[in-house]
Amino acid sequence: MDHYDVCIIGGGPAGYAAAMRAIDYGKKVVLIEKNKLGGAGLYDGALTSKTMWEFSQNVLTARKQIDSSNLRLDVQWPDFMKTVNEAIFDRSFQLSCHLKILQKEEKNHLFKMERGTAKLLDKNTVEITKKEKSKKIKSDYIVLATGSTPRKLPNIEIDEKAILSSDGIGHIKDFPKSMVILGAGVIGCEYATIFANIGKTKVYIIDKQDRILPFEDKDISKLISENFEKKDIIIHEESQLTRMEILNGQVEYELTDKNGTTSVHHVEKALVSVGRIPNTKGLGLEKIGVEMTDRGHIKDINTRSSVKNIFAVGDLTSHMALVNVGELEGRHAIEQMFDKPEPITYTNISSIMFLDPEVATVGLNEQQAQALSIDYRVVKMDYSCIARAIAMRKTNGFFKILVTDDDDMKILGMRALGEHASSTIQAVSLLISMNKGVDELANLIHPHPSIIEGIQECARMLRGNPIFKSSVFNDKLQCYRYCKGKSIPLDVLIN
After folding, report:
1. Which of 69, 206, 379, 404 could bridge to 458 as Cys pair (CB 3.0-4.6 Å)?
2. How far is CA 168 from the centre of its chain?
3. Is the separation of the CB atoms in 286 and 268 below 8 Å?
4. 3-class DSSP state for residue 318?
């Protein structure tokens, strides 16, 4: 029976990162993948949807440019998916070639890739099954990185033809004439943006809350909702889905609104986007005593499970289900085995929502700070006050920064909505991890013209010495404090 220092189950972003970190330590490591190397980070997940989004943004720009002419932009589904499949091929080829070359290098001869389904027989023994043949291996440490799958609802039949999950949306044959999306979270709103941008699909969103993206502040939800309305996206707000079924190859769904009124609607396709569930079934975790949460995640402390030599990373944990977080956790698990790393901190994890405009986030927003009873100061600056945004003719968006309500004004969080938003967040993320305040931001010399100059001006506003005075641009610039349950202008002294 083969014996390894580390066995990693799952070849998605978290498992792949863990394997590469184990190689750094010169350990004998096996990476087991039952399906496709790269996981949902590559197939039917992050890379797929973001390539779709990039394509759709280019189409949207072209549509706006020719809107006043007699030309008509007619995007075909095969061309759309050709771009997506090329991106998937490029990345998958890169990952697989990387592993093949590593295994051939003499210094990495301890690394091995295994194909098959893995199951834990005990805390050190793993059974690998492929085409009804099985083998057993031993390992000192085991990293569980099996990812997640789209959550299904018991009363809705997902056939991946008319009613789809995010796994099936890229495998349809053409742009649907109409589509309803169940779920107004990040994934649902991203796909609404993609199909609306192309302009060939009438999009509806079912939202049981009073606004989309309810985990973000109202000003963010409001701006995205307004842009959805401009794209002719219909949001069924505060509506409960009572029925969804396939009739004659299309979808009929029934809603009950907040007043108790029911309505029946018909669309060509439906996308069910109600979250994801961790892939733990069949791993044998119950038998060996790995503790789970009520939602099916593996309980962990800095990636270590309740069984000392078994670690859980990526979507299996109850932390943020993001590729960058999975990679961080995968590397950290290995470092815990053979080193003494600092604990993982999730307070400065940045993320992007690929909407229109794109949204970048890090740290706390206002409703989170209020839920934690944290007093804070906040500054908000509209993109229309930023020279680069004006030059680009893309002034739809704003910066919003939260800091502690004291003289140090240490950064608690930031939200950026608008062009280049994803490129603006990293410096703030670093300052949060360093427990720094706005002075560092204010004193940086930002390139001109650039979107990030707006961040510097936000810092100056908090320090009371901005170039643009909020008394003049009071509809574009805001600076206030939240203390004792009240929001008041920053220059008003709170007793």
Report:
1. 379
2. 19
3. no
4. coil
Distance (Å, rounded) from C-alpha 417 to C-alpha 99?
A: 38
229-256 residue pLDDT tens: 999 999 999 999 999 999 999 999 999 9
Residue 130 one-letter amino acid: K
Which alpha helices (DSSP H) does 121-185 contain, by range? Answer: none
Q: Which CATH architecture has domain 2-47+81-149+277-338?
A: 3-Layer(bba) Sandwich (3.50)
Cα–Cα distance, 460 to 79 (Å, whole number): 47
Give the number of other Cβ atoms within 10 Å of residue 277's Cβ.
Answer: 15
What is the second-level CATH architecture of the domain 163-274? 3-Layer(bba) Sandwich (3.50)
- Alpha-carbon distance of 290 to 305, in angstroms, equals 7
Q: Which of 218, 216, 210, 206 is nearest to 270 (CA)?
A: 206
pTM of the model: 0.92
CA distance 488 to 482: 7
Return the SS3 of 128: strand
Q: Cα separation of 42 and 91, whole Å?
A: 8
Query: By C-alpha distance, which of 384, 407, 388 is closest to 397?
Result: 384
pLDDT tens by residue, 128-147: 999 889 999 999 999 999 99
Domain layout of the chain by residue ranges: 2-47+81-149+277-338, 163-274, 350-489
CATH fold of 350-489 reads Enolase-like; domain 1 (3.30.390)
